[in-house]
Amino acid sequence: xxxxxxxxxxxxxxxxxxxxxxxxxxxxxxxxxxxxxxxxxxxxxxxxxxxxxxxxxxxxxxxxxxxxxxxxxxxxxxxxxxxxxxxxxxxxxxxxxxxxxxxxxxxxxxxxxxxxxxxxxxxxxxxxxxxxxxxxxxxxxxxxxxxxxxxxxxxxxxxxxxxxxxxxxxxxxxxxxxxxxxxxxxxxxxxxxxxxxxxxxxxxxxxxxxxxxxxxxxxxxxxxxxx
Length: 227
Description:
Elements (H helix, E strand, L loop, with lengths): L1 H14 L37 H4 L13 E7 L5 E4 L8 E5 L6 E3 L25 H7 L2 E4 L4 E6 L3 E6 L7 E6 L4 E11 L9 E11 L8 E6 L1
Parallel strand pairs: 1-11
Antiparallel strand pairs: 1-6, 2-5, 3-4, 3-9, 7-8, 9-10
């Protein structure tokens, strides 16, 4: 019985069971040996890791280019909403002129409805016109400023000059240019809804003086305040 137990224990030891495995020294050519750890960079402490350059710069953004043109701010300082009908663009809402009426000289800050650049292949566009009141209401566009808020209209600082379209086209097209250096009256008009039901909205306008043209020194935001 004892001899059989000793033989069984010896067999277990030969198979590696029942005792911790003894680490052997890798032999030359042994492909199972662990590869040595790579040396640390000269400027890094052992065990230190370096963040990839792409992650280091991920939170850094290039500076934004300066905005082009200006913002015309239509500020509602009165009571109730202020509406600006823009179905045919901003040219029907915002305009500018030099001098005083009736000798004022207007300039166009925005393009007229259904017109195009003279350099466009379609200098005479065809625009849909409403056939009835229902279609007119469906096509209507309105920008609204609640009391104390504003509508901000981007303007590129250019004026529109109209001329006959090239070739045999029977319309007028536009080109852009800088407005002549001068002091202008910038004016805008909107509609203030009546507080009484059934009564029409009341037109209201605001204006300000501003210098426009090449080299002008007006602020980037031109504000018109509606009382």
